[in-house]
């Protein structure tokens, strides 16, 4: 077995085929994370760890980069931050998981003892679904090696496990919402509404233009800034979506009412999965309930073809009305056993908490149910981290 650390972004393309073979979710694919590196990774050093077997084949990839602040280095997932990648994972051949975990454990232990002009602060794993996280065994091994694990709940992902027919699905909805969904379905069949599909990179410019316009218009109508106010996010979408469209792992759909775009959805997908990444709706057409109407189309069209419809991250109330169930997402911070690393982590936690308190002092801010709750140490249960995830800014 061997460990290779990729520090030059051009090296990522050399393992593109193996990367995509190991990826379980569209957000873990090379195209998504390489686009993030290209747009958000500027100024950060790549630190992607590749595990190879005795034949030289890639059997595991930890897609990390270095966040270096004043000589204190934290490893983070590519795709972190504003992009809000869900289901972040260490890519691994399922049949070789034990080997990959062992190699990564040895590597992290060596790294925690190495000081070459900087302090290894640890690893910050954002967007992790713990139950399916492939490195669960790695976390247990790290704790045995006296690494400290901290956990902070993030907003949930919300999934619908679709039945086989539309009629079966309608029966699981609440009576009041069922009547509304039937009304949306009838509207779609009446002729005034039309849905455009964007499935290739050639169609991306049309879909992106509509998405940028509707998403920002909706945020402005709410007195908020949208993710598109940040230029790198626009560049990221333009880098990530076209190749995923051509490969069949993404699409966009535009809902038109009498030839006017009133809603748009950016979608990530695989064979049996459909994920709603971002949406935009026309604020001047709210009376038509464009978000719910588009959701009705998407779910009705998905039934019979896929089993999992995912609203993805965000605890908006409307998702429960569609009978979606929450899938907990966490942020895990792994801190080496040495005193300097733990002191650095503690100081960062105190500083973030202080900034949070000052920012919201004297306001009537409503606190998220999971925010600020204390947990026992991770030797048995997770303990809190002061780091929280940015909202995805998706509005229905």
Please tag this protein with its features.
six-stranded mixed beta sheet; about 400 residues; globular
Short description:
The protein has 396 residues and is of the alpha+beta class. It is built from 11 helices and 17 strands.
What does this structure look like?
By secondary structure, this protein is of the alpha+beta class. It is built from eleven helices and 17 strands. The chain has helices at residues 16-22, 30-39, 97-113, 136-144, 166-172, 175-190, 204-221, 231-247, 290-302, 318-321, 339-359; strands at residues 2-6, 45-46, 48-52, 58-62, 64-69, 72-77, 91-92, 119-128, 148-153, 157-161, 193-198, 250-257, 260-270, 273-281, 308-313, 325-327, 330-335. The strands form three sheets. The chain has a seven-stranded mixed sheet. A hairpin with a 2-residue loop joins β5 (64-69) and β6. The protein starts with a strand and ends in a 37-residue tail after the last helix. Mean pLDDT is 86; it is low at 363-391.
Question: Would you spell out the secondary-structure blueprint of this structure?
Answer:
Elements: E1 2-6, H1 16-22, H2 30-39, E2 45-46, E3 48-52, E4 58-62, E5 64-69, E6 72-77, E7 91-92, H3 97-113, E8 119-128, H4 136-144, E9 148-153, E10 157-161, H5 166-172, H6 175-190, E11 193-198, H7 204-221, H8 231-247, E12 250-257, E13 260-270, E14 273-281, H9 290-302, E15 308-313, H10 318-321, E16 325-327, E17 330-335, H11 339-359
Parallel strand pairs: 6-8, 14-15
Antiparallel strand pairs: 1-3, 2-5, 3-4, 4-7, 5-6, 8-17, 9-17, 10-15, 10-16, 11-12, 12-13, 13-14
């Amino acid at each position: 077995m061997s460990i290779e650390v990729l520090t030059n972004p051009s090296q990522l393309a050399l393992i593109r085929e193996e990367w995509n073979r190991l990826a379980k979710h569209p957000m873990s694919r090379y195209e998504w994370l390489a686009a993030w590196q290209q747009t958000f990774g500027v100024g950060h050093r790549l630190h992607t760890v590749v595990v190879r077997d005795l034949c030289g084949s890639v059997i595991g990839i930890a897609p990390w980069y270095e966040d270096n602040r004043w000589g204190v280095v934290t490893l983070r997932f590519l795709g972190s931050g504003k992009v809000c990648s869900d289901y972040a994972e260490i890519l691994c051949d399922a049949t070789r998981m034990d080997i990959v975990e062992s190699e990564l454990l040895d590597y992290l232990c060596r790294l925690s003892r190495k000081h070459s002009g900087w302090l290894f602060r640890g690893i910050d794993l954002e967007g992790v679904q713990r139950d399916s996280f492939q490195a669960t065994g790695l976390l247990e091994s790290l704790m045995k090696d006296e690494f400290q694990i901290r956990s902070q709940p993030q907003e949930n992902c919300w999934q619908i496990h679709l039945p086989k027919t539309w009629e079966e699905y309608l029966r699981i909805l609440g009576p009041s919402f069922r009547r509304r969904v039937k009304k949306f379905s009838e509207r779609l069949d009446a002729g005034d509404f039309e849905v455009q599909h964007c499935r290739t990179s050639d169609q991306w410019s049309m879909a992106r233009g509509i998405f940028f316009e509707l998403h920002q218009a909706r945020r402005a109508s709410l007195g908020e800034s949208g993710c598109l106010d940040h230029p790198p996010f626009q560049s990221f979408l333009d880098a990530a979506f076209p190749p995923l469209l051509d490969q069949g792992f993404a699409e966009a759909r535009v809902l038109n009412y009498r030839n006017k775009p009133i809603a748009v959805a950016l979608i990530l997908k695989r064979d049996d999965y459909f994920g709603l990444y971002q949406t935009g709706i026309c604020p001047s057409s709210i009376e038509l309930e464009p978000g719910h109407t588009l959701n009705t189309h998407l779910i009705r069209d998905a039934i019979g073809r896929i089993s999992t419809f995912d609203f993805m991250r965000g605890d908006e109330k409307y998702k429960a009305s569609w009978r979606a169930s929450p899938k907990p997402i966490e942020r895990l911070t792994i801190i080496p056993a040495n005193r300097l690393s733990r002191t650095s982590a503690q100081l960062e936690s105190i500083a973030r908490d202080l900034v949070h308190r000052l920012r919201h002092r004297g306001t009537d801010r409503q606190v998220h149910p999971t925010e600020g709750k204390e947990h026992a140490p991770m030797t048995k249960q997770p303990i809190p981290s002061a780091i929280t995830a940015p909202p995805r800014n998706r509005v229905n």
